[in-house]
Specification:
This is K Homology domain-containing protein. The longest helix is centred in the N-terminal third of the chain and has 20 residues. The relative contact order is 0.13. Strand 4 and strand 5 form a beta hairpin. Helix content is 33%, strand content 24%. It has 374 residues and is α+β, with helices and mostly antiparallel strands.
Length: 374
């Protein structure tokens, strides 16, 4: 039977939610400027690899900037105003749109001219117009489009703590050997899903750095964090231990990722504070998207992504980052027999910007940037 009372309450709750969303809308930080995200349904794009499949609609057409028109450092010309913005070439297609429709609509609605470099050529998008406000509006809409589609780009780098010290690798190989001896009969457990010992690490957060300029920006930001990190660590190495196992989904019989727990030997929260502060800085700079309130301090030891691709990496957060083409494993016996396994102790002296799908001479990920605690 149709419950009119329940429907009425549901509608009232929805209206209240919408009202609160209007009063306290989501704020987006782009290059230090704050934008208000209005309640607009975002259009879905079916084929992101086809640059002709992008049309100009969704949040970018209806959101506005909560900023004065003179907030941008704009060049004044004889014909009006000019603003040049750095945009990775991989994002050009989202601004051009299907058969150029997005750019045409942007130009029409803002009464500006938008010049975009050729696809694959790194450069600046130049917006010109007779009115400062018109140029500001075009810049705002382009930035919101980029923000939306940047989230869809695969990550290229990640902030990491290296856990591949010789003593940790040795204990990890012992763990692998014993697990295969005692638990290989369990569903999905085989040697292919174990981490490469040379690449044992803890992921702090992932980065989609889309050109050399963005890599440089991330490295410069990490260097700027050095004083902050040394204040937290007292300018000393962090004494850590890797002990115990954890999984993050609900069913230990259907696990995709098994983690080793990492903690400070003295029981302090310095490692957690370092990780959280790094995320704060990189999120504020627009180089990282926040996934969790706090960084989860775990190092992957087994991952079903490796079953098909030994070089694969997940995002280091969710226990099930992708269920497509993955065969979970039964971790119940492993957790029972090795739940308190001691992988070893070591002293951590820095954080890397690690390049995804790379290997340096030590077998670890190639480092684009490094800051040390001491």
């Amino acid at each position: 039977m149709y419950n009119l009372g329940t429907c009425k309450l549901s509608c009232q709750a929805h209206l209240l939610y919408c009202h609160m969303e209007v009063l306290r809308p989501t704020l987006i930080n782009i290059n230090g400027r704050i934008y208000r995200k209005n309640l607009i349904k975002e259009q879905e794009y079916q084929d992101e690899d086809d640059e002709d499949d992008f049309s100009y609609s969704g949040p970018a057409t209806a959101q506005c900037a909560d900023e004065p028109c003179d907030a941008l450092p704009m060049e004044e010309t004889e014909k009006g105003y000019r603003y040049a913005m750095d945009v990775p070439s991989v994002l050009y297609k989202y601004i051009i749109g299907k058969k150029g429709e997005t750019r045409k609509k942007l130009e029409s609605e803002t009464r500006t001219s938008i010049s975009i470099p050729k696809q694959g050529v790194e450069g600046q998008i130049v917006i010109t117009g007779q009115q400062r406000g018109a140029v500001t509006s075009a810049v705002t809409r382009i930035e919101l489009l980029m923000e939306s589609f940047r989230k869809k780009q695969p990550f290229t780098h990640f902030l990491s703590f290296a856990l591949n010290l010789p003593q940790i690798q040795e204990r990890f190989l012992k763990f692998k050997e014993e697990v295969l001896e005692q638990c290989s009969q369990d569903s999905g457990v085989d040697g292919s899903i174990f981490q490469n010992p040379a690449k044992l690490h803890l992921t702090i957060g992932t980065l989609a750095l889309l050109n050399d300029m963005e890599v440089t920006k991330a490295c410069e930001l990490l260097q700027q964090c050095q004083e902050l990190l040394r204040d937290i660590t007292g300018g000393k190495l962090l004494s850590l231990e890797v002990v115990g196992l954890e999984y993050m989904n609900d069913d230990p019989a259907m696990v995709d990722v098994l983690y080793a727990k990492v903690q400070a030997k003295d029981g302090s929260d310095k490692l957690q504070v370092v990780a959280d502060q790094l995320v704060e800085r990189f999120v504020a700079a627009g180089l990282m998207f926040r996934e969790w309130d706090r960084v989860k301090l775990h190092g992957t030891v087994m991952n079903t992504l490796f079953r098909r691709d030994p070089s694969a990496e997940d995002k280091g957060g969710s226990g099930r980052p992708s269920v497509k083409d993955r065969e979970a494993f039964d971790a119940r016996s492993i957790l029972k027999k090795f739940g308190a396994f001691h992988f070893g102790e070591f002293e951590l002296n820095g954080v890397h910007i690690s390049q995804r799908f790379s290997t340096d001479c030590s077998g670890y990920y190639t480092s684009s940037g490094l800051v040390q605690f001491s």
